[in-house]
Amino acid sequence: MHTLTALHQVPLTTGPRTLSLHAPEVAFTAAVALSGGDVCGVQSPVTPSWHTTLRQHGVHPATLVDAQDQARHLGQALAYLQRRGVITAEELAHLAQERLLHALLPLLPYRVEMTIRPSAGAPLEQTPRVPVLEGVKALAALQPAGRPVHLSLQQAYAASPAQVVLEDDGTPAALVYRAALQGMTLQEMARRLPLRWDELRRTVLTLTAAGDIWPAEQTRPGRVQPQLQAGELAPDFILPALVGPPVRLSSLRGGRVWLSFNRQSTCAICNPHHAAVIAVQPGLRAAGVQTVSIWGSSVADLAGGIGRQHPPYAVLADPGDVTYDRYGLHRSLSGTLDPRNVATMVKGFRMMGAKALKSDGELLRMPAEFLIEPDGRVSRAHYAAFGADFLPLEDVLAWAQS
Predict the structure, then answer these.
(1) How far, in Å, CA of 402 to CA of 396, rounded?
(2) Which of 61, 98, 289, 377 is exposed most, by the fewest CB atoms within 10 A?
(3) How far apart (Å, rounded) are the C-alpha atoms in residues 63 and 380?
C-alpha cells in the first residue's frame, strides 16, 4: 500500500503504539510514535534531532544546554523552554508537524509495508502532538505528481569553491551549495539543513541540473582561465579558513582587499614573504584594507605551515587549486629554478626546516596577488614571473593610502 493509504488505516485506539512504515524499493523506514489519535514522535533516516530543530528555529545553544541540564527527557526539556518563554506551544506544535512531514515525505512516491506494535512504557505526555488526520491532510497536499527521480541518501555531493551560487546566504540554493562544498551526503543535508525534504530535494535537483553541484565521485577537470586584467571583476569564491568560518570574497565588498595566491603552506618562498606581510598589517588595517591569503594545501596542513606565524588575516585552503585555475595562475619550471629565489628560500628553510620540502603538488606553482577595490574590481593584478617575485610592499601600502 502507499503511505497515505497506510496512514488512513491506522486505528485511532488508546495506548502507546509504534507505527513502522518501510519502503523496500528504497530501503527507507520511518517509525511513528502514536498515542491515541496523535503522533507524539517520529524517527527516520532524514530526521534531525530536536536539538537541531530548535537551534534552527533560533533557540540559542546555551539555552538548549540549560534545558537539557534541567530535564530527564525531551518532554521536560521542551516544557522548560516554554516556561522560560523561549518558545510557545503553538511554535512547538508547528515544528512537530514539520518534523513529521520531513520524515514521511521521502516515502510518499513508494509502496510501503506497515506494522503497528504496542510501545513499552507510557508515551511522552509533554512532547508536541500532531493529530494523525492533520498529518495525513498535510502530506496529501504535498503529494508529488507522477513518479519523481530517485535520489540516494548515501550520495555525497561536490561543488566548486570558484563557482559560487549567485544567491544570498541562507537561501536554499546557498545552503545546499555550501553543504556540497563540504562533501555532505543527501542524508547529512536532510539532518543538518533547515530545509524540509521536498524543498531540499527540489533544490538538489535544480543545482545538479545547472551544474552547480554534482555527485562527488564525478571528477571535474579544471581549466585554467585567462589572467585577470585591471578593471575586471574579481571572481567570487568560498573557501575554508584556518581560523573561523569559510570566507566568501564577495562578502568583503565595501572595503579594499589584498588577495594573494601562494604555494603550499610550508613553502620556503611564500612564508618569508608573509612574515613581511604580517609586519605591515597595522598600517593596512588602519587604511581599511583586508588581507586574504590562499594556499594550495588542506586546512589541516595550514596549521603546520603558515599557521605557525599566526597571521592576523584570513588564511584559506584550496588544495584542489580550483580558484588558482579560475584566476589564471600558472606553473613554471624556470620560475621555480630561478636563482633570484635563493635568498628567500634560505630564509624559508630556516623558518620551516624539513617541512619546506613538502610540496602538496605546488612545487612549480607561481604566486599571484590582486589589489581589489571596494566594488570588487581588480585595481592591479600581479602574476609572479619567478617564485619570489612578489608585489612590492611599498606599492601595496601606497595603494592602501591612496
Answers:
(1) 10
(2) 61
(3) 48
For residues 26 and 84, state if they share a domain: yes
Cβ-based neighbour number of residue 190 at 10 Å? 24
Cα(276)–Cα(356) distance, rounded to whole angstroms? 18
pLDDT at 12 over 80: no
Helix or strand run (H / E) with residue 33: strand 28-35
Q: With beta carbons less than 8 A apart as the criterion, state whether 178 and 193 touch.
A: no
Least Cα distance to 296 among 274, 275, 271, 316 occurs for 316
- For position 320, which CATH number holds? 3.40.30.10
Domain region containing 163: 157-215
Specify the amino acid at residue 231.
G
Determine which helix (DSSP H) or strand (DSSP E) holds 315, and give its type and residue range: strand 314-317
In a domain, 229, yes or no: no
Which residue intervals of 84-171 are DSSP H helices?
89-104, 132-141
Please, what is the end-to-end C-alpha distance for the chain in angstroms? 73
Length of the chain: 402
Same domain, 136 and 167: no
pTM reported for the whole predicted model: 0.75
The contacts of residue 319 (CB under 8 Å, 6+ apart) are 296, 297, 298, 301, 360, 361
Of the chain, the percentage scoring pLDDT greater than 70 comes to 96
Nearest CA among 302, 309, 311, 273 for reference residue 360: 302
Distances (CA, A) of 240 to 182, 277, 293, 300: 9, 21, 12, 11
User: Residue 361 has which C-alpha cell?
Assistant: 603538488
Question: For 400, phi and psi rounded to 5 degrees?
Answer: -65, -35
Residue with cell 533547515: 194
Distance CA 46, CA 104 (A): 9
Q: Does pLDDT of 52 surpass 90? A: yes
If you ran DSSP here, which 8-state letter would residue 105 be given?
G
Q: Which residue has the cell 544567491?
A: 167
Angle at which helices 74-83 and 61-70 cross, to 10°: 120
- Tell me the three cell numbers of residue 202: 527540489
Q: Please give the backbone phi and psi of residue 6, each rounded to the nearest 5 degrees, phi first.
A: -60, -45
Amino acid sitting at position 222: G
What are the tens digits of pLDDT across the range 122-132? 544 457 889 88
Is the CB of residue 16 less than 8 Å from the CB of residue 122? yes
